[in-house]
Write a structure and sequence with these properties.
heterodimer; A: 210 residues; alpha/beta; Rossmann fold; Arc Repressor Mutant, subunit A; 2 domains; 5-stranded parallel sheet; B: 1081 residues; mainly beta; Immunoglobulin-like; Heat Shock Protein 90; 5-stranded mixed sheet
């Protein structure tokens, strides 16, 4: 990612004032640009595939198509784009579904904007926040598939996450940097996404949907 | 030796006052046949009568009969019974014309011996006689020798052999026709055959049979009178009496010589008319000989003074119905009670020597009316005068034996000077006159010189006061002053006869209400007491007449029945008065006997003692009183004659020993005796008259029965059907294993709810006078007296054990001690037995238990359901709460987001005004805190986040976030999978969360540490959560502000946890929370 270019952010949020104010804040911050805002998935689906975007902030609760569904549809089209789910409360189950759909992480809406911007920066650098819960779900998810596509390092990190260690501690323990940990996690996400997508296909084949 | 040849003496004047009379029992009474061949009484007391057509057993009330049944081998082998013998155990040996039978009382069946198919010897099977010797061998005489049955063990109880005449053996049995076999008291066996008398001299053990013969030798007058020996008996002096076809023989061997002394021997007469054909011979307990002949009736022979036999003959007379019923006599026996039984060819006869046969005169002749005797007296010339109601006046001479000598002299209205044929009273006065009280006046004749057909002195009521008060005269008396008193229908006349012979009358009558006069004019009887007072019994009370001769004054005192006063007269109708030998006055009334009790010290105080004569005294009316030589009162009543001993002390049940009742069956003229018809002769005989003549009673010879008969059960019925031994009833059960007279125990089921017993007292004296009583213990509280009815029925008795007892009196009313008893067990119906009841109680208990159990289960289920519902509701509530909160948070969250954004915008719009910036920063931090708080709030409410692990996770994430961008190394340790199972409720997780969030905030703010650790540990039932850092620490004792320690403590308290704060300046801080989690394991 070219660090000189500002990060292109798109927002899909149905609450007008939030969408608009957030867009203003992001756009008004150095290094960020927010030119695309949508109030629902349908309109986002129309425009985004052609747009030049780095990060999409997707509200989970949207009228019509849900945010997760939106990610599911958009991620294959925009594989380089990081989708961050916007949520009021951290509903773990929903977040895992989102990640399985292809999201890179999530953001709590009423996070102070500074933290919000930092998180966006992080995700473009490859980091993705993963909670212990989500780590466990990931492990579970991978167990359901025939073979685990994770590397040894990834598995180890995942295991440490499951045990409840945070990134810092993991990094210290593995003698790697916290950043590296995040990158591994991002990869895990990718693989999870793929695997979940693959699972969906296999399920569909099993169910003779395709 | 002189040849004794004695002709019998007939019409011998008996030394016994009571004559021999026979009561007849025939087929009309129930006997199977009148041709009686044999009699015996078994060891139980039953009388067995063997006839030519059937075997009978008599219990005094009815006959049980047995016949031959061709289909039943346990029945009699024939019903022509020739001989009987009783065994010691109640069995009866029955000899028939076809074999020997033995009746087994235990099963009521006959076991046959010696009948056609049984014997291995040719010949007849007519068992002419049976004898049982002291070794229990059975000897049977037949037409073809003797059968000897020896008892043995094994399948058959007897070994049978024969003893026969052998022509060439002199010592063999004299002849095969054996009529009689007899064992004497010296255990010799005598056999009477067709050819003489034999004495057994053989060896029974070795079966060597030899006999010594005694035959008739016409040349030897000391030989037996005839060779056909039919009967042999023995008297206690050892004399053998041998009855033959011609004559009775006295045979006594102890005297050394063999001597047969002959009696009843008619040399001349041919066989047909021979009066000496001795068919039957019997010695009674008094050692009298009873001889039954062929066609000449019955003889009784005794040794009188002079060492010789005297005979009395009894024959059958068609007209005399208490004579023998027939003259051909086959069997004679005496039973246990001393009754003589005579079996003839025309029925059975019973002579009870202990039964009274009072002399009865003026019995009605057939066709004519009876003699209603109303007055009796004897005069000094030896005549007995009898006044009759409607028959006039009789004069008879009574002999020493109380018989009427000659014919009575009869005086009537027609043939004499008698005023009326209705003669009601007689008096032979001290001056030789006979006063005759009739229906129509008073007559008087001079006893030794009266003219029958002439005119008799007659006194009638007339116009003047000096005449008889009334012409209907009831009673006459001569008092000690010489007055003649006439009690009449209409008053009392006192007659003074002057020395010249003229009569002066003084009359007394009654006036209603005036107790100073005669109490009632109808005067029935009079008696003079020891103080010369005259007591007068009337139709309406008792009067006492007191006379003082000096002043010729008199006074009447009245006595009558006063209801409510127990000492007054029991009844006002007074029929007779008597002064006894102790000068007590007895009053015969129409309801019973009273005694006048005069207190000598207070002669004015007179009371009447009531004497009770019978258990049920209804209807007993006493008409006359006499007294015998030993102070016993003889009372003529309307229920026979009572003999009463007034001072007899007997208990309630002993009333019969002080009182004896005689009735028609004792020979009395009838049961009704008339008022005033009584007289005691100088010889002490008691004359009682009634509607059927009069009786003369010798008080010393009035017998009462002393025999105590045994009581036996004679029948048992179920639902009125007789139950046979060994046979099943209609319901299929065999209720009686043995005949009822041999049954001691009876078992009945609840089906058998109507049963009855019949019983009998085996006393044959007067079975109709036997009284019975029975009781069923414990059902009946006392004896139930049934009179002569010998039956008891019970219905619907409850299940249980009972004892049924029967007792009986003898013919005199004395209770016999020999009672009959039967144990009865009534089984309960299956639904009432003890195990049924225990089953019920178990079932009931089980039922109750199951009900309780079901109820508890239902309650439990209800509780569970309720709990489930409650839990579901609770969860639902929590979910709702969470949803509500979530919704609110959503709403709130958006607003907060906006505030944040706007604040950010605001801070970007203006120039950096520090103050403004500070305020905006505060807004931002506060909204952040608010947001976090809201999230915590939601999280706490979430019921799915209820495990310890959730809480620790949250704390971990909070810490992660808090310390992420700091220099602090934060980690969480001790997380274990177990913590997923440990549950924290809402309050706990809230407080734990807030406590440690505060701790972590404090740490970040003040501790300046490099490492912070959150750890959790469970020891026992306590959860320890510790947050420690390696910062600079603080002094916990110093009051601090802003550290929120107090807050944390209070939070801990809220959830009953303890909080420890360990810190020291320079060593770091540890916040430890200890929480008790129940059921941790």
């Amino acid at each position: 990612m070219n660090e000189n270019l500002p990060i292109q952010v798109a927002i899909v949020e149905d609450e007008d004032e939030i969408r608009q104010t957030l867009a203003l804040i992001i756009d008004g911050t150095n290094g960020f640009s927010c030119k695309h805002t949508f109030s629902d998935c349908e309109s986002a689906l129309k425009i985004l595939p052609e747009a030049f975007v780095n990060v999409v902030l997707m509200d989970i609760n949207l009228p019509g198509m849900s945010g997760i569904e939106g990610v599911k549809q958009l991620k294959p089209v925009l594989p380089e784009v990081d989708f961050m789910m916007l949520t009021i409360n951290k509903e773990d189950e929903v977040i895992f579904d989102a990640i399985s759909a292809g999201a890179s992480g999530y953001l709590v809406k009423d996070t102070p904007p500074a933290d919000l911007l930092r998180a966006i920066t992080e995700v473009t650098q490859g980091g993705a926040p993963m909670s212990t819960y989500i780590a466990r779900r990931v492990v579970q998810s991978f167990h359901r598939t025939a073979a685990s596509p994770l590397t040894e390092r990834e598995t180890e990190i995942l295991r440490l996450l499951c045990d409840g260690l945070n990134y810092k501690t993991i990094a210290g323990q593995l003698f790697i940097s916290a950043n590296t940990v995040r990158v591994h996690i991002k990869n895990i996400y990718e693989k999870l996404h793929v695997s979940s997508r693959a699972q969906a296909v296999s399920t569909a084949i099993n169910k003779k949907l395709i | 030796m002189l040849l004794w040849c004695l002709a019998y003496i007939s019409a011998w004047s008996s030394l016994v006052a009571q004559p021999v009379t026979f009561e007849r029992i025939s087929a009309e009474n129930g006997l199977s046949s009148d041709r009686i061949n044999a009699l015996v009484q078994d060891s139980s007391g039953f009388l067995w009568i063997g006839t030519a057509s059937g075997l009978n057993r008599y219990d005094g009330r009815s006959f049980t009969k047995w016949f031959h049944d061709g289909t039943d081998t346990t029945s009699l082998s024939s019903h022509n019974i020739l001989s009987l013998h009783s065994g010691s155990a109640g069995e009866v040996w029955v000899g028939t014309d076809d074999g020997l039978n033995c009746y087994d009382p235990q099963n009521g069946n006959f076991r046959r011996y010696l009948n056609q198919p049984d014997t291995n010897i040719i010949g007849t099977h007519q068992i002419l006689c049976i004898a049982i010797d002291h070794r229990q061998n059975i000897w049977c005489g037949t037409y073809n020798g003797i059968y000897l049955l020896k008892p043995k063990t094994g399948t058959t109880p007897y070994a049978i052999q024969t003893i026969q005449h052998h022509k060439n053996e002199k010592t063999s049995l004299a002849d095969n026709l054996v009529w009689t076999i007899f064992e004497d008291h010296q255990k010799n066996i005598w056999v009477g055959t067709k050819k003489g008398l034999d004495l057994y001299e053989g060896d029974l053990d070795r079966d060597l049979h030899r006999f010594r013969h005694f035959k008739n030798n016409p040349a030897d007058t000391r030989s037996i009178s005839h060779n056909r020996v039919w009967n042999i008996q023995e008297t206690t002096d050892g004399t053998l009496w041998v009855g033959t076809a011609s004559g009775l023989n006295y045979f006594n061997r102890e005297k050394g010589n063999i001597l047969f002394r002959k009696y009843l021997y008619d040399e001349s007469a041919n066989r047909k008319n021979n009066y000496g054909q001795i068919y039957a011979l019997h010695v009674n307990p008094q050692q009298d000989l009873w001889i039954g002949t062929h066609q000449h009736g019955l003889y009784r022979a005794r040794f009188e003074t002079g060492n010789d036999l005297t005979f009395q003959q009894f024959t059958s007379h068609a007209m005399i119905d208490n004579s023998l019923s027939g003259n051909i006599i086959k069997e004679i026996m005496t039973d246990e009670a001393g009754i003589l039984w005579v079996g003839t060819n025309n029925g059975l006869n019973k002579y009870d020597p202990n039964a009274n046969r009072f002399i009865h005169h003026l019995k009605p002749e057939t066709g004519s009316t009876s003699y209603k005797v109303r007055a009796i007296c004897t005069d000094r010339f030896g005549y007995t005068w009898i006044g009759l109601n409607g028959g006039g006046l009789f004069r008879v001479k009574i002999g020493n034996d109380q018989e009427i000598i000659g014919k009575p002299d009869v005086f009537t209205e027609k043939n004499s000077g008698l005023s009326s044929n209705g003669v009601f009273s007689l008096l032979a006065d001290s001056k030789g006159y006979l006063w005759i009280g009739t229906y129509k006046g008073l007559n008087r004749i001079q006893l030794n010189s009266f003219d029958q057909t002439g005119k008799w002195d007659t006194y009638l009521p007339g116009n003047s006061a000096n005449s008889l008060v009334s012409r209907y005269i009831f009673t006459l008396l001569e008092d000690s002053y010489g007055f003649i008193w006439a009690g009449t229908y209409g008053g009392l006349s006192r007659i003074r006869v002057s020395p010249k012979g003229s009569l002066r009358f003084r009359n007394f009558t009654s006036q209603a209400g005036d107790l100073s006069r005669l109490i009632n004019s109808t005067t029935y009887c009079m008696v003079e007491d020891q103080w010369q007072n005259l007591w007068i019994g009337t139709f309406g009370g008792l009067s006492k007449y007191s006379y003082s001769p000096e002043a010729d004054t008199f006074a009447f005192t009245s006595f009558y029945q006063q209801k409510g006063s127990p000492n007054s007269l029991r009844n006002n109708r007074i029929f007779d008065l008597h002064r006894d030998n102790r000068d007590r006055i007895w009053v015969a009334t129409s309801t019973g006997l009273d005694e006048i009790v005069i207190n000598e010290e207070k002669p004015g105080k007179i009371r009447f003692r009531h004497h009770r004569l019978s258990k049920k005294q209804e209807g007993l009316s006493i008409s006359s009183i006499l007294e015998d030589g030993i102070g016993r009162l003889w009372l003529g009543t309307n229920q026979g004659i009572y003999r009463y001993l007034p001072d007899c002390r007997g208990g309630e049940g002993q009333i019969n020993t002080c009182i004896k009742v005689f009735d028609k069956s004792d020979g009395l003229q009838s049961d009704v005796f008339k008022r005033g018809a009584r007289f005691k002769s100088l010889s002490g005989h008691l004359y009682f008259g009634g509607t059927n003549g009069f009786n003369i009673i010798d008080p010393q010879l009035a017998y009462s029965d002393t025999y105590e008969p045994p009581v036996v059960f004679t029948a048992f019925r179920l639902f009125n059907e007789p139950v046979k031994a060994g046979m099943p009833t209609k319901l299929g059960r065999t209720v009686l294993q043995h005949p009822v007279d041999r049954t001691k125990k009876l078992r009945l089921t609840y089906h058998d709810n109507v049963f009855s017993f019949e019983f009998a007292a085996l006393g044959f004296s007067k079975p109709h006078k036997v009284q019975y009583a029975y009781r069923m213990d414990p059902f009946d509280k006392d004896w139930i007296y049934t009179g002569n009815l010998a039956q008891a029925t019970y219905t619907n008795l409850d299940p249980g054990q009972y004892t049924f007892s029967v007792k009986a009196t003898n013919s005199s009313g004395t209770w016999s001690a020999k009672t009959a008893q039967m144990e009865i067990e009534i089984l309960p119906p299956p639904w009432a037995t003890w195990w049924a009841y225990s089953f019920y109680s178990l079932a009931a208990a089980g039922f109750i238990i199951s009900i309780i159990w079901l109820r508890e289960r239902r309650q439990k289920q209800q509780l569970l359901a309720a709990a489930k519902i409650e839990k579901a509701r609770h969860e639902e509530r929590e979910q709702i709460r969470k949803k509500n909160a979530a919704d609110f948070h959503d709403e709130l969250g958006h607003k907060l987001t906006k505030i944040n954004l706007f604040a950010e915008m605001a801070s970007r719009q203006t120039d950096p005004d520090l103050q403004l910036k500070a305020y905006l920063a505060k807004i931002k931090s506060n909204t952040a805190a608010l947001s976090e708080g809201m999230r915590d709030f939601i999280w706490v409410l979430d019921p799915e986040k209820d495990s310890l692990e959730n809480t620790l996770m949250r704390l971990k994430e909070f810490g992660d976030q808090l310390f992420e961008l700091t220099a602090v190394n934060y980690r969480v340790t001790g997380l274990s999978g177990r913590f997923q199972q440990i549950q924290l409720d809402l309050d706990k997780r809230k407080q734990v969360l807030l406590i440690f969030k505060e701790a972590m905030n404090n740490c970040l703010k003040y501790a300046k540490c490099s490492t912070a650790t959150l750890s959790a540990e469970v020891s026992g039932e306590t959860l320890h959560i510790v947050f420690n850092d390696d910062g600079k620490g603080f002094d916990p004792n110093r009051p601090t502000q802003g550290y929120g320690v107090k807050n944390m403590q209070e939070r801990a308290k809220k959830i009953n946890a303890t909080l420890h704060l360990n810190s020291e300046p320079g060593t770091g801080t540890a916040v430890e929370l200890s929480l008790t989690i129940p059921h941790l394991h």
